[in-house]
């Protein structure tokens, strides 16, 4: 799943996302296409510390979760709800949000250029660039499946 987030595949990702329309109906869940893209923007921002959160998961629990979600082929299940949908949108339209997501992925790449850069994930603890690529790839695949863009 890392492939979706990998910089060499970003144009493919971009073209998939451009297939979304404001009225695209998800196969599951309540998110609109724009809410999903804005959700992904926030998640990428967390990975390069533009947004921050408190990491308060016990270390052993974080290691087990990281092992399961980063180092296996486990997919995020449909209908997983981890919080409320945002009340408002940050971007004026879906296309603008998609372009912003692509910029945020570039910012993420630049942030990790210095060797040894590590950023905490809220549930998995410290992760390097490769681990974040795996996570973003799985997360993107989950939402692309949600909107019928991939199988």
What would your notes on this structure say?
The two termini are 12 Å apart. This protein has one domain: Four Helix Bundle (Hemerythrin (Met), subunit A), CATH 1.20.120. The mean pLDDT is 94. Strands 1-2 form a two-stranded antiparallel ribbon. It has 151 residues and is mainly α. Helix content is 47%, strand content 4%. The radius of gyration is 15 Å and the shape is globular. A hairpin with a 3-residue loop joins strand 1 and strand 2.
Q: How is this fold's topology laid out?
A:
Elements: H1 10-17, H2 33-47, H3 59-70, H4 94-111, E1 119-121, E2 125-127, H5 129-146
Antiparallel strand pairs: 1-2
Question: Which structural class is indicated by helix and strand composition?
Answer: mainly alpha
Query: How far apart, in Å, are the first and last alpha carbons?
Result: 12 Å
Q: Supply the number of helical segments.
A: 5
- CATH topology: the name is Four Helix Bundle (Hemerythrin (Met), subunit A)
Q: Uncertain segments of ≥5 residues (pLDDT<50)?
A: none
Radius of gyration: 15 Å
Q: Approximately what portion of the residues adopt beta-strand conformation?
A: under 5%
- Output the helix-strand order: HHHHEEH
Q: What is the residue-averaged pLDDT?
A: 94
User: What is the CATH class designation?
Assistant: Mainly Alpha
| Sheet with most strands | 2 strands, antiparallel
Query: What is the general shape?
Result: globular
Count of domains = 1
Helix content: 40-55%
Q: Total number of β-strand segments? A: 2
CATH architecture: Up-down Bundle
Across the major sheet, the strand order is 1-2
């Amino acid at each position: 799943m890392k492939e979706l987030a990998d910089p060499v595949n970003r144009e493919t990702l971009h073209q998939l996302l451009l297939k979304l329309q404001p009225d695209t109906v998800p196969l599951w869940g309540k998110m609109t296409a724009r809410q999903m893209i804005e959700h992904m923007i926030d998640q990428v921002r967390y990975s390069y510390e533009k947004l921050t959160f408190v990491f308060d998961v016990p270390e052993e629990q974080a290691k087990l979760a990281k092992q399961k979600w980063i180092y296996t082929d486990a997919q995020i299940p449909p209908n997983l709800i981890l919080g409320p949908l945002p009340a408002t949108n940050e971007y004026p339209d879906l296309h603008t949000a998609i372009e912003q997501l692509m910029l945020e992925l570039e910012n993420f790449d630049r942030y990790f250029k210095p060797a040894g850069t590590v950023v905490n994930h809220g549930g998995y603890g410290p992760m390097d660039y490769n681990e974040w690529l795996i996570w973003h790839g799985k997360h993107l695949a989950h939402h692309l499946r949600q909107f019928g863009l991939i199988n």
